[in-house]
From TrEMBL, chains A, B:
SUPFAM superfamilies: Actin-like ATPase domain (SSF53067), Winged helix' DNA-binding domain (SSF46785). It comes from the Bacteria. It comes from Rhizobium calliandrae. This is ROK family transcriptional regulator. PANTHER family: GLUCOKINASE (PTHR18964:SF173), ROK (REPRESSOR, ORF, KINASE) FAMILY (PTHR18964).
Amino acid sequence: MNDTRPIRAKSGTNHEGTSAHNRRVMIDALRVNGALSRADLARATRLTKQTVSNIIDELESDGLVTSRQTVRNGRGQPSTPYALVPEGAFAIGLQIDRHMTRAIAVDLVGNVLVRLEAKLPSGGPTTGIRVILDLIAAVRRHLTAIASQSEQRLVGLGAAMPGPFGLAGNGDDPWMMEAWQKFPLLETLAVGTGLDVSIQNDAAAATIAERMVGAAHGLDHAVCLYIGYGIGAGLILGGELYTGAYGNAGEIGMALLAVGGKSTPLEHRASLASLYQYLSLDPADPNLYVKIHDLVSTEDRRIVEWVETAAADLRWSVHLIETVFDPQTVILCGSAPRILVDRLLVTMGPLLPSLAERPDRTVPRLQVGMADPWSVALGAAAGPISLEFDPRYAAILKD
Amino acid sequence: MNDTRPIRAKSGTNHEGTSAHNRRVMIDALRVNGALSRADLARATRLTKQTVSNIIDELESDGLVTSRQTVRNGRGQPSTPYALVPEGAFAIGLQIDRHMTRAIAVDLVGNVLVRLEAKLPSGGPTTGIRVILDLIAAVRRHLTAIASQSEQRLVGLGAAMPGPFGLAGNGDDPWMMEAWQKFPLLETLAVGTGLDVSIQNDAAAATIAERMVGAAHGLDHAVCLYIGYGIGAGLILGGELYTGAYGNAGEIGMALLAVGGKSTPLEHRASLASLYQYLSLDPADPNLYVKIHDLVSTEDRRIVEWVETAAADLRWSVHLIETVFDPQTVILCGSAPRILVDRLLVTMGPLLPSLAERPDRTVPRLQVGMADPWSVALGAAAGPISLEFDPRYAAILKD
DNA sequence: TAATTAAGTCAAGACAATTGACTTAATAAG
DNA sequence: CTTATTAAGTCAATTGTCTTGACTTAATTA
């Protein structure tokens, strides 16, 4: 037995894992339900009153929760509800897109405190990274002006950009952002900002935003169909964002539509990029969204055409997502003008039959989430908050 | 605040959760790596030597692990490897199919000790349940004859049958087993056997088998494409079987193949049922598999035709699975004759381009798993073992 | 033969949840 | 108005589980 093949094993846990989990469970409960008393928390989490009391004391002295007015509930001593303190934590979110970059600052409950954007120069990462670092620095300055403790309570920087990551090389597919995908973004941002950095694709980021403050709030099984320059699905499976073995799960835009024959990726038919192409719009045009909004609201013939073909493809995508994931709901979201997403939703109905047609359904099969150019940046910012405060299996384990 | 809306919260954990997790981690490590010393386990699980020592002592006195010959590893005291005791636990697996039922008994490491099958009468559950209960009783008698302690160490009964579950009603689609799907199987089996019963669809069961003793052994992100009478995908995501919000995740056989136009479910084109139909074979024929084997080995024209169309659909399915789940590997398995599955695998090559074409790949994109009529029953039996002994987030939580 | 290295044990300690009795503050009943 | 009841929340002791650091054992190497 002198071989040194690595031993594969899951990590064990100890008291600190237990305690970390229970703290996260409290925070999650307050996020999902709003203010709760210690007794409520004890019942909901199945912990004892005493344990909850200790944890709440601790969270309070850490500045993460605070008590509200006591309330009388009938007989018995009035209860004291506790709520999350928005200023308990902050995070920066960064979206890197083809032609521009956005940065945002959020607090513990998901309020957006600062938002800034900048055009990205065409030179790719070598010139773009300077713009990005400046933008982040500016966001931090603004944030400090609003909340003086923000720097001490900054839990990290979440970055979002189009995937997929780690591939062999895509040739020069203009749909991709190959130069950025190969750039050591994480390391560069970490050094340049001194923050903990995490990176996700844009659909995953939008999904985290939906879970924190949107349509997936409190749901443990939800899929967001994200329509941006590309198309992706963000997966909330078992209460956690699922990103696959290599971080590319949900890259549904790359799915080929037809079996055999000439097959096109979904992304080439139903994304904003395909819309720009169809309407010969310039993706770098700063008035793009206004133009699209106007075209939709005046029922322009060509955009109606595009919506109809895109809706057919998306209808099928929803069917596929339901069939494969069996989620509680599918959420249509995107960094697209709200009016366009609403129009898509309407045009997608009626949905294809699927196993999601349950007799006991309480949530709609398909609903609109945030449709806002800033949702990716918001989700990117929510990422570090979620990593730090949401209950997760990995948070229990050692190391 | 006198409303009584239910409070949604995750469950907390305590010492017992910690300890339960660490025990499971040990067992998992021994299952994946074979025999390991206490020191090895301590390093791999990041627990202290002392903790590992205590847990191993406990597992040993519970009859779940046992020591092997000490081995000299160079300097230092020789180490004592510990291994799982096969007789440490047993489980019964049950497969209910359209025309027959199979029952199996396995031990802790996945050895099959008993296998029995019976024809199911055409009368559906009302008459079939008697046959099934008798079959289970017979398996238990045989098991007791082999392992006298088996009854005390029986952790449960896992049942597997074609999904989907809990739907509104499928009309009388002959592909479905509607009467069985509506029958209160779980309750009836629990009462009839006195065991803990769990139910899964056949693809999920086959996947658990692959994870325990097959191609997914030790992998945390793998998808099994299961080809049986129907078609389904079994999902190992983040080291656990994922079954969706309502237990139907992976029912990929219901996925419609084309966008718009006349679209057929995958299941109607690439399943064994479609093969039987194509070749006008009787699904209830006891010599079915022998016939198919012969047809494949003699390269019968019509089966070659079927394989080619099915392979095209399955090639696309693999592409889709890779795109959506980003797994470490896709495993082709089924309750079909091995030779047919092998033939399908060969015919499916070359695979479609996808993000699974990674430069750093160590596992094949697609591989054959168990292809054996008994794999579903085996996986059904592995279910209760996995539930009882594998590390899982839910095992840590209270209640 | 002595030094070194590694496996494994012992006993005390630390940490976090649990337990059960107690306090507080409200409503309901007589 | 008084007393019983109910529920929130605290106190202090206890329990369960992992950790720590010193120690023992048994091998190889110098």
